[in-house]
Structure formats: C-alpha cells, structure tokens
Amino acid sequence: MKGSGESGTPSKIYFDLEFEKKFNPTKHGPDLVKVFIKCVCYSLHEIYGIEADSSLFLWLDASTKEKFSCHLILQLKNIAFVDNVHVGNFVHYICEKIRHNIETFYLTGCGSSVLTSMRGEVETDNLTCSWPDPSELKELNIFGKDGNLHLFCDEAVYTKNRNFRLYLSTKMGKGAPLILAPENQYLPQKPSSSENIFLDSLVTHFRCSGSIQLLTFSDTCTPKQKLTDLPKQRVFLQGCQQSPYFEVDKFVHSLVASSEKTGYIRRWTYYSDDELLVYDIANYRFCENIGRHHKSNNIMIIVDLRRCIYYQKCLDPDCRIQGFKSTSRTLPREILPWFEIMEDSNITQKRDLVRTSDTWLKT
C-alpha cells in the first residue's frame, strides 16, 4: 500500500534512505541519517531562509537484518514544494553538493586547507545550522550490490506520479512494516495517535490553517548557481562548459579522447588558493594504477597551474584506499601562454598575470 506523489500537487519534502547491510558492515544507519538531516537543514536555510531541525522530521523505519531502510518526511508548517518534481530537484542539489564535498575530501586529503572551505555555518536568531565535516559526509557513501559507491539517498523517488510507501504498510511478500523509528523526535498533533502519524506521513496531505507557502526549485538551479556557502577565495568557480583556461580544457580533452573511447569533461572546478583545476571526466575511465579502464568508476585529471603539471586520480574505492595518484607530467608550454611572458620576468609578474585572470573570473 502506497501514497501517491502526483505531479502538480503540493508536496512535503521526503527522503528514502537505505543500504544493504552485508555490503556495508561498518555502517550504522541512524548515524548516517543524522548527518543527512544536517545537510537538509543547512540547505533549507541557505536557499530559502527556513529554519528546521531533527524534531521536524517524521522518521519511519522498515529495517531488517539484511537492509537498513527508512523514510523521512519533513513537517514544515504551512510550507510545501509546488510538487514532488521540485522536491526532487532540491534533493538532487543536496546530493550533488554532498558528492562534490566527498570528492574534494578524497582529492585533497585530510588536513588540506581546501577542506576547511567545505564546511558552512549559518547564524540565525535561535539556531545554528552547520554543514557537516567532510569526514562525516564521506560516511554517506555506501556500497551497492554492483560493488560501486553510491549515496544512501534514493534519488529516483521524485518522478511524476510516483507512489511513496505508507505508514504501517509492508511491501508485497515482505514482513517489515514501516513503523515509527526509535530515533524519531517528531511529535504529531495531539492526541499523538497512529492516525495522526499516518496523516503526517502522507506527503501530499496537509493539516494546516490558512494558505500554504509554495517553494520551487527548477532543474536549472545547479550547484554552479547555488553553492553560495563556499568561500570565493577557495572554491573560486566551477562549471560544466568551458573554463576560463580554455587552452587547458582543450589539452585535457585530448588526453581522454582516443580511437576507442571519446571522453569528455563532465565538470571542472577551480581552486584559486592552490591554483588547481580539477576535471571530472566522463565516458573515459582509464586508470594508470590498474593499467586499464575501470568498469564504472570515473577518473579525474588534476592540473596544477602553479607548478605547470597534471596528474590523474580516480573515484574507485580501491584506488582511494591506496591513495593512488599517477605520475605528474609537465604541461605543454603552448597551452600556458602567460608563462611565455615569464621567460624574462620574475615570479611576481607571473603571479600578477594569474591574479588578473582571477579578477576577470569574479566579474
């Protein structure tokens, strides 16, 4: 038995969080949920100025010995999204931000100055919303049946006319009903009965007086536009098309385009403090560590503009555990035209040229 999330119908914010225990023996589901709730609360305040905490999340659980499974339904008074598609866009934004933070954590390593830019804090009148540490966020990565890492938030439950499981119901042929989790802090309206919990678990049913404030989050609101919490002096700019260093873009593309596979730059991120350009590569997974293409895990090309070198890392969990980083290679001189000017100049002039490029980026 399920409750529908129909397209065009106002919807609460809801989440389906799960993982297979046998593939993740060290994971403790409730701890992961608490970290994820921090991300949601921070993002709500970051984008909409809405304050929330764990006491507003109805936490339902259907875990078994084999699988951790829970639903979260946020109970905001007189506030909802236009429909579940907009909810999905908001959730995708949160998950993409988490993934980006985790990738940066593995890229830079603990203790790097870049890590401090991954944290955020929003001060309000009566609440401090904190974005979790990268060391906490990386725990949200779980191993799936395919052996690959995924976030434990199911992002596929926000399509049009989608159904969402109801309180006390079970899946067909299963014996694990969706019940109130021991960790739940949300208190329904009095009397606190199963009926009220059931009504609050319906993502398109609202028990409120007056009009509902409707929120939107279109699919054009990408992290490039929305990641305002990251200090500009550290994570300077990111995007999916041409970077300000188009000569470097062209060179990186040549590295991942072969007769067998045509890779492309899925996203680039520029860290101005360290003068690093990080390219996330798609459709090309050759890893120097194993001497072949990974089956599913993508690679990164890191360009160090300060040292004029580049190297490869990847998102494969085994390579991460080994701390793999390929041999560093020198960038071709022709793709760094500003360094040609440096032949008869000192390092200060070189820095001025790079900072001039930074100034152009800010505009």
Automatic annotation (TrEMBL):
Keyword terms: DNA-directed DNA polymerase, Nucleotidyltransferase, Transferase
Domain of life, per lineage: Eukaryota
EC number(s) recorded for this UniProt protein: 2.7.7.102, 2.7.7.7
Pfam families: Herpes_UL52
Catalytic reactions on record: ssDNA + n NTP = ssDNA/pppN(pN)n-1 hybrid + (n-1) diphosphate; DNA(n) + a 2'-deoxyribonucleoside 5'-triphosphate = DNA(n+1) + diphosphate
Family membership: Belongs to the eukaryotic-type primase small subunit family.
Protein's name according to its UniProt entry: DNA-directed primase/polymerase protein
Organism (species): Limulus polyphemus (Atlantic horseshoe crab)
